[in-house]
Each structure stands twice: as C-alpha cells, then as structure tokens.
Amino acid sequence: MAEHILVIDDDARLAEMxxxxxxxxxxxxxxxxxxxxxxxxxxxxxxxxxxxxxxLPDADGLDLCRRFRTESNIPILMLTAKxxxxxxxxxxxxxxxxxxxxxxxxRELLARLKAILRRGGADQNAAIVRFGRLEIDRDALExxxxxxxxxxxxxxxxxxxxxxxxxxxxxxxxxxMNQLQGSDLEAFDRSIDVHISRIRAEIEDDPKRPKRVxxxxxxxxxxxxxxx
Length: 228
Description:
The protein has helices spanning about 10-25, 35-45, 60-70, 85-95, 105-120, 155-165, 175-180, 190-205, and strands at about 5-10, 30, 50-55, 75-80, 100, 130, 135, 140-145, 150, 170, 215, 220-225. By secondary structure, it is α/β, with parallel strands linked by helices. The chain has a 5-stranded parallel beta sheet, with helices on both faces. A 4-stranded antiparallel beta sheet has the order 6-7-8-9, with helices on one face.
C-alpha cells in the first residue's frame, strides 16, 4: 500500500504540483488549503507524513505543528516563504522534522520527505530496538544498558518507549501525556519531569549531563537517535 501524504498549503498551484510529483513517485496524496481543512482531514485519515505550510489564511503553521504534535508523532516537513532562521529553529523545537524554504525544487522536497519517513519507519515499532549501548525490549518491558537491566517502573518504561518511538524529534509534554493516557499513575505535567530524572539515573552515563534524553526548555524532550 502506498504511503499517504497530507499536504496543507493554500497555494493551489503548488499543492497540485506536489500532488502530481509525489503521486508519480508512488505516494498517495491528499491536499488541504486551510488549517481547519487540514485538521479535519488529519483526524479522519491515517497519514504517513505531512507537508505543512507555515503561512495559512486561517492559522499559523507553527501553532498547527504544535497542535499536531500533541496528538501524533507523524513526521512533519514544514514549508515557508520566510528566510528567517528563527522560524526554522522554532519549527524544529516544537516538533517539525525538517524545514524547507520556498521556492524549492520538487526533487529536494521528495528527498527530504523520504528522509523523515525513514527516520519514522517501522523499525521503531520492532520488539527490540537498539540505540548504541541502550537496548529497549518491548516484549520483556525492560531496558538494558550494556546488557544490564535498568531499574525502571512499568510507567517509566512506557515513558521511555514513547520517547524512543519518537527518536530524533522533540516531543511536547502534551503529546507524551496523551500517549500515556490510561496509565494508573499521576497525570500531572510536572510528574513527567520526575520520571525523566529517574530514567536518566538508569540510562545516562552522567544524569546531570544527559545525552540520551535531552530537555528542550519550555517544550518537552527529545530522545537522541544517535547514541554511543
């Protein structure tokens, strides 16, 4: 089955060009011209990735990106006509996977789209995943560092699992809490920070200078994809 891409952009000509180009490359494409249409389509269908314009007539792309990230771990490629590096930094910090300024070559967009799809690929859902010396065993519900079992509660393992499935992406606290709904443990935002500290005590070489679970101040956390 072809991977399904959602394009949210109010430029009808650009959206049609992307639809034709991506369809020719083997993808299924759905387009939305406004933020509200994009939200509706996103919630009604399953998508493999999203191409999201920063400037929309009824919404700010950064706000939309933040909103999508609280509900899903879908790979997001942001488009913008702006050249301000700050927009790029903010976009990446709130959860976008990549950022492409307009105008662009369709071939470059396709290459970037393929890259973020690979990063969000099925290997992250495998029973056992390895990040350098850290191994996460989803069947056994345990993490191992250098082969030694980490002392984590079931909630902390679930939290680590959510982070690892989004490896390389900034995950907001809202997104993490949504993924952990149904847990018997406390559902307060700050409790996440406490559990993160305990996870770091088990998986980091130096918990005070974490290299595996990194805080993005004011946003959430990112689990480093490349680890040693």
